Amino acid sequence: MTHRTATSTITFAHPFRLSGFAEPLPAGTYKIETHEEMIDGLSFPAYRRVETLLFLPPPPGQANLIQVAAIDPADLEEAQRRDGETSGGPA
Hints:
Layout: E1 3-12, E2 28-38, E3 47-56, E4 67-70, H1 73-87
């Protein structure tokens, strides 16, 4: 199967919650990585998302520590929507 990865960033103006995390995540800019695989057997190229990763900020004093969490992209979109409402931006 053919795989591809898309990388983007997302910025939150306020602390936000995602399922699977006990505490709110701090406001800031986060790297997002989306992994997709090609759907075989079609007459045109099409991909399906297989994983979305959120790169977390390192804990204080541990700048070299990289923490990554698999997240639900719908959950991330909802958190972004709530952040926009809190900021007074578009819903």
